[in-house]
Amino acid sequence: MSPSRGMADVADLIERLAHSDRLERVHAAVDLVRLGRAGRRLEDALAAALKDERPVVRKMAALVLGDLAPDSRKAVPALADALRDVEEGVRRRAAVALGQFGAAATAAIPALRAALADADEGVRSFAATSLALVEPADRARAA
After folding, report:
1. Which of 8, 27, 36, 95 has the largest CB neighbor count within 10 A?
2. For the domain that residue 127 is a member of, what is the CATH number?
3. How confident is the model over 17-61, as pLDDT tens digits?
4. What's the start-to-end Cα distance of the chain, in Å?
5. Number of domains composing the chain
6. Best CA proximity match to 88, nearest among 131, 58, 45
7. Nearest CA-CA partner of 57 in 83, 93, 98
8. Which structural domain range is residue 73 located in?
9. Contact at 8 Å (CB) between 47 and 79?
């Protein structure tokens, strides 16, 4: 698919995120990574994709939402929720994505702090890095 085909392709990809075929949803998420940001409908679809039954779809949704930083309003709460996903790969991507938002992700500070106790070392590491990017230095010292 060529990005030059425009918004019709984006609408198609958004619809494909809800397709009954799992592989189709994965391909749609990958294509969206290539296209980048496409407005509120994309944001809504990606936030919903963080709850997909297939971990790879959830990972790709977190990746794309991170690429929307700091312009996405729905991404931060959705990514904060994804820090509790059963799959460590999804939690890792969510932690990294939250760091891309910087100070715009302050609402996720409690979730990032909780992720510092995650069973997965990678999640803990990414959460710590993102927390340093999100949390103002003076508040971090006081905590």
Report:
1. 95
2. 1.25.10.10
3. 889 998 998 888 888 776 665 566 778 888 899 999 999 999 999
4. 48
5. 1
6. 58
7. 93
8. 3-142
9. no
